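Chapter review: from sequence to fold.
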Amino acid sequence: MKQYITFGQSHSHRLGDTLFDKDCVATFPALNGTQGRRLAFKIFGDKFCFHYADQPPFMEYFPRGFVEIPLDIRKAALQSLIQESEEASEEKDTRG
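The token string follows.
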């Protein structure tokens, strides 16, 4: 499921050679909207505006169009979420 992230006027991120800002929409795949939102927070922190799951925003406001988040960044964010989930599961198991 394709995910779309927009940014506010003061939100600017450089991931490798790729710039994400108010003039573009970041795109990436995720299993569902919940995973997509968690990945967005993992990649951009709380410095993004809106998350759209499966339906892109009106593109007339984004002159640079869609910009795909680089694969290595997506993989690292997903691996981090998996690790956090495993650690939470282990912590729950030790508490009984």
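Two observations follow directly from the output. The two ends are 35 Å apart (CA to CA). The chain has a mean pLDDT of 94.
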